[in-house]
User: Which sequence fits this backbone?
């Protein structure tokens, strides 16, 4: 019996759920929707990229993400130094 080949999993392109690094990294709207379908009860949301009112729920999400990703910057100094890393690009998109 022939072994079934696994299809190549892509994160970008047709059916891609993640943005390219140059496009700011992170998940796409389509990717978030797919993740929520696969995991009922999920509260996953896309990045907070626009202007937000001070103290709003979106502002709090942004502040929380920025704090968590700052920890990633400490943990991965190589990514923190590279302005084109996914981490730095995602933080830029979130306006951290």
Assistant:
């Amino acid at each position: 019996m022939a072994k079934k080949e696994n299809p190549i999993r892509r994160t970008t392109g047709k059916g891609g759920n993640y943005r390219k690094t140059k496009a700011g990294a992170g998940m796409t709207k389509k990717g978030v929707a797919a993740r929520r379908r696969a995991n009922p009860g999920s509260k996953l949301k896309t990045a907070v990229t626009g202007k937000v009112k001070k103290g709003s729920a979106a502002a709090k999400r942004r502040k929380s993400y920025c704090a968590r990703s700052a920890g990633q910057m400490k943990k991965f100094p190589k990514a923190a130094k590279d302005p084109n890393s996914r981490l730095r690009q995602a933080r830029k998109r979130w306006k951290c």
Residues 21-94 form one domain. The chain has a mean pLDDT of 89.
